[in-house]
Write a structure and sequence with these properties.
- The chain is about 5% helix and about 45% strand.
- It is mainly β.
- It folds into two domains: about 5-345, Glycosyl hydrolase domain, family 43 (Tachylectin-2, Chain A), CATH 2.115.10.20; about 350-504, Sandwich (Jelly Rolls).
- Strands 9, 10, 11, 12, 13, 14, 15, 16 and 17 form a nine-stranded mixed β-sheet that branches. A six-stranded antiparallel β-sheet has the order 23-34-25-30-31-32, with no helix packed on it.
- A hairpin with a 7-residue loop joins strand 11 (about 195-200) and strand 12 (about 210-215).
Length: about 500
């Protein structure tokens, strides 16, 4: 793997023409995705500035971007737009690190629409000649032609009583209190992850520190909280955050996590009171920096989330191809019985193309196409070629099942899922992958389901898997780089009673 110098990491991109050759080279990769947002070149990490414009009926989504290769360095925001969250249009570079307040990178943030304007809030990563960092909370406006106009001065700088790590502003408006609030992920000087809260009656000025939000029970949980978000879904609040420098049971040597806690928010008392324990946003190996779209309340009865399908400091197979990362499929967020449900965005099903396979009853989509004997799938393993990109809908009738994903014709390689109905335990392993992916982070995951698994919706792309269990009760996400030349291209099913597979 290439060793990058500081000069290479912080080389500015003066024109997109400078990456044309690299872009053409990357297009030949067999692992370029078919329906996921991915980097034009180089590294993609956090989704930023995610917002729905209800006037133009357009979704705006930025991703943090290093253009020169699969490493972290001078970060830009790259802009994508969509009418349906499935088909994305390239809108070019959104934010460039071209001022003193963001001279070493435009870091993560959010957006809000007020008074007919879309405003973007982000962290300006400034470093002086001695490489001392200062984190500024900066403001920009998204114009109707998709260009971005920065405000000349930051909204505020870092708080001296905390470490230099203060970033990732998330903004919202509280109608009851008539105020805007920004939360910032921070690290205290005694290495404690926390949230700083700022308030103002004007989204563009007058911001003042209100204090530290007390998330009860999490006063000493990790050393830094990245990408914080507090979302109201129905009558409940969800706190989504990424605690760092903490190991959690069943997650190997991973020290960067994406978690959520459901609870009650009181901004007057500056408290978030959980109503249950934290949960992992995703059962899988690669989900981080999740972001929820702003300005959806007037149009939709759910929130929409996307996340980086990757982890900080992780290594991926395409790094040597000078690109890395993608975003998850956008997900609808609902709360039912005190639990967060994540469902695949409904528009993705409008993109279904030809039916690849069907087995047993056609299910809920109204198709009358059937083939084969459903019982034969339960009694003996069957192999089906995975034609990516595709979506598979599977039913189990609450029985045991086994799946070998991207295995070869002998059942070797790939990712395995094994479900024991008597204990409601699902075991996931990618230990047999021919192309290993950060094995030190653990190659197995195990979870006990509250309800028996009866339905799976699986999205296969050229280098990723996303599986939604029981209409979003749990989600499993993983990058995977199958060795198709040596046969890693099959799905082996045991115990699956019914399935439909569609090309996308």
């Amino acid at each position: 793997m290439k060793e990058w110098t500081k000069e290479e990491r912080y080389r500015p991109l003066n024109s997109l023409d400078e990456i044309r050759e690299l872009e053409e080279k990357i297009k030949t990769s067999p692992f370029r995705q078919g329906f996921h947002v991915q980097p034009r070149t180089g590294l993609l990490n956090d989704p930023n500035g995610f917002i729905y414009d209800d006037e133009t009926k357009t979704w705006h989504l930025f991703y943090q971007w290093f253009p020169w290769g699969a490493t972290h360095g001078l970060k830009y925001w790259y802009h994508m737009t969509s009418k349906n969250l499935v088909n994305w249009e390239d809108a070019g570079i959104g934010i460039k690190p071209d001022t003193d307040m963001d001279n070493k990178g435009a870091y993560s943030g959010s957006a809000i629409k007020c008074n007919g304007e879309i405003y973007i809030y982000y962290t300006g990563n400034h470093r002086d000649e001695n490489w001392v960092r200062t984190a500024y909370t900066c403001l920009a406006k998204l114009k109707s032609d998709n260009s971005v106009e920065k405000f000349e001065k930051p909204l505020f700088g870092p708080e001296e009583d905390y470490s230099e790590h203060q970033r990732d502003p998330k903004i919202w408006y509280d109608e009851k209190l008539g105020k805007y609030f920004i939360i910032i992920g921070a690290r205290s000087k005694d290495d404690r992850g926390c949230l700083l809260v700022y308030e103002s009656e004007d989204a563009t000025q007058g911001w003042k520190l209100k204090g530290e939000l007390n998330v009860k029970g999490y006063e000493a949980f990790g050393k830094m909280w990245e990408c914080p978000s507090i979302e109201k879904i129905g009558d409940s609040y969800v706190f989504i955050f990424c605690p760092q420098f903490i190991k959690l049971p069943g997650r190997g040597e991973v020290t960067n996590h994406n978690l959520y806690v459901i609870g009650d928010l009181d901004m007057e008392k500056m408290t978030f009171t959980p109503t249950g324990d934290f949960k992992h946003l995703d059962l899988g190996f690669e989900v981080y920096a999740a972001a929820c779209a702003a300005n959806t309340e007037k149009t939709f009865d759910y929130k929409v989330l996307s996340a980086w399908m990757g982890l900080p400091d992780a290594v991926y197979y395409t790094d040597d191809e000078d690109w890395s990362g993608c975003l998850t499929l956008p997900r609808e967020l609902h709360i039912k019985d005190g639990k967060l449900l994540q469902k695949p965005i409904r528009n993705i099903f409008d993109a279904k193309k030809e039916m690849l396979y069907s087995e047993g009853n056609a299910g809920d989509n109204g198709s009358t196409e059937n083939s084969g004997d459903a019982g034969s799938v339960a009694s003996a393993g069957k192999y089906y070629e995975i034609k990516a990109p595709s979506v598979w809908e599977l039913a189990t009738e609450n029985d045991d099942f086994n799946m070998e994903i991207f295995c070869d014709a002998d059942g070797n390689g790939g990712i395995s899922l094994s479900y024991d109905a008597s204990s409601s335990c699902l075991k996931i392993s990618r230990a047999k992958l021919k192309r290993k992916i950060n094995p030190e982070y653990g190659e197995e995951r195990e979870v006990i389901f509250e309800n028996a698994i009866s339905k799976l919706t699986c999205f296969f792309d050229n280098s990723s898997i996303e599986i939604f269990f029981n209409d979003g009760e749990e989600v499993f996400t993983s990058r995977i780089f199958p060795d198709r030349e040596n046969g890693e291209k099959y799905l082996k099913l045991e115990g699956i009673k019914k399935f439909l597979a569609y090309g996308l």
